[in-house]
Amino acid sequence: MPMTRFYSLFCLLALFAVQAGASDAGNPARGPWVWSVAGGALHQVDTDFEDAEGGFSVNRAFLQASSGYAWDRRNSVSLSLGWGSSNYVFADDARIEGLRPWQRIEDYRLSLPIRFSVGEKSDYIVIPSVRSYAERGASLSDGRSEGLIAGMGWRFSDRLTLGPGFGWYSELGGGSNAFPILVVDWQITDRLALQTGRGLAASQGPGFTLAYRLNERWRLSALARYEKIRFALDDGQAQSAIGEDRSAPLLISVDYSPWPMTSASLFLGAELNGELSLETGRGKQVASTNYETAPVFGFSFRSRF
């Protein structure tokens, strides 16, 4: 999809979400069906490799649409479809230990979030998913992986919900990636809250969000997480078939909510401890390079109606 067409579609969906949210804000009586749309864009500025010549920048964007049925506030099931694009722009002389890096990575995902409660104190969430990350020109089936995120929260009080969770994803090249998750929803004060966070594109890895509510519409947030994205490469080089980009983003976000269940955010920050690597089709690393701290900025929106 050309980027001009993407941004046109992105703006139309954002406008639709605003109009639908405004209409719904005036109608507090809601039915059991819930629809949502989310999107965002991020730019990573030009960043040099630490141990190699050259550098790169990245433009990321994503769209996601969901439909769900809620029996009540604690029990629901939904279907979510998402598309994203990460356009890597490497310097002409950029090489990872002599190998050519990748270009545009596209991802497609399908997930089925299920939320349910047992008794008055415990809430559960289970999210099975199928996704594909692949360089343009590569087969989507080569980039396919399956995953599961599950967690339980125990309501200790009206202000604190806490519990264990885990994430598991099959990995390109064989093997799998499993990681623990701490489910947190802690209203520290009337204005300050700590919650389990989510990434820009629902990428793999745990994270947290510390949010301070300025008033009914404005909020300041600090986000920290670990991210790892693996993707199938085009058949341009026999030596490498899988690429990986991992980092630890730290972000500051300004969030605006014009009405309930609708928000827009502007954020900036940096990606720390970044590393790019290339692997064979069996997951054996053949080249890697670290990159310097990378400033990032962008925006996102989310609306339910």
Summarize the structure.
It comes from Seongchinamella sediminis. The chain is mostly beta strands and 305 residues long.
Structural write-up:
By secondary structure, the protein is mainly β. The chain has a single domain, classed as Beta Barrel (Porin), CATH 2.40.160. Helices cover 8% and strands 63% of the residues. The chain is built from one helix and 17 strands. It has a 17-stranded antiparallel beta sheet that branches. A hairpin with a 5-residue loop joins strand 15 and strand 16. The chain is globular. 27% of the residues are buried. The N terminus is likely disordered. It comes from Seongchinamella sediminis. This is Outer membrane protein beta-barrel domain-containing protein. Keywords: Signal.
